[in-house]
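Here's my example:
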Amino acid sequence: MILLLGLTFGDMRGDRTAPRTRDMVWLAWAATAAYLLHQFEEHGIDAAGVPYAFRGALCMRFGFANATACPIPESFITAVNIPAVWISGPIAALLGRRWPAIALSYFSVPAVNAFAHIGPALAAGDYNPGLLTAVLLFLPLSLWTLRIALRRPDLGWRIVTATIGGGIVIHAVLILTLRAYLMDALGEDTLVAIQVINPAIPIMLVAAIMQRRPSSFRAE
């Protein structure tokens, strides 16, 4: 709620000469707020009125009949959600005041996650926990931000590609390590540790590109 109030009535821009909806810092904060609402739909009460529905849906995707019979640990869910949203979002927004490309890198998570919800929903012809906020918040916000980034000479297609690529890698690591855990090829502590550091991947990819032309990616 505080974040939403700040976005609406405060000045959370990195560049005060730009409109809010074109400022990468403001957009990164907006994406963080959108993801918090998305987490409520997944882990609070979903659009069908089911509490904590995401874990059960995830278990079914991996072939388990219900959440009770599912060995996916709750520590995994926590390790995915807190670093990827509560930590990475604010870090990207704060660093984005100096390097707008870092603010953009946070969109690796909602942009790819939107399709992680929309794809299965289209394939199954059914709702999944998180779909509503993915369609109403993630998809338009991500498409708008990526469009703005593509038109900015300090960002452009290289940073956008790194952002999307980072999001794909994050989700691939998440699924592959969880599958390895379920096959007893990975311990729970290792599984959790990987999820904690996983959100750093897009920032590292974007930072690697920034190193090639560092002066081009700084805020004026």
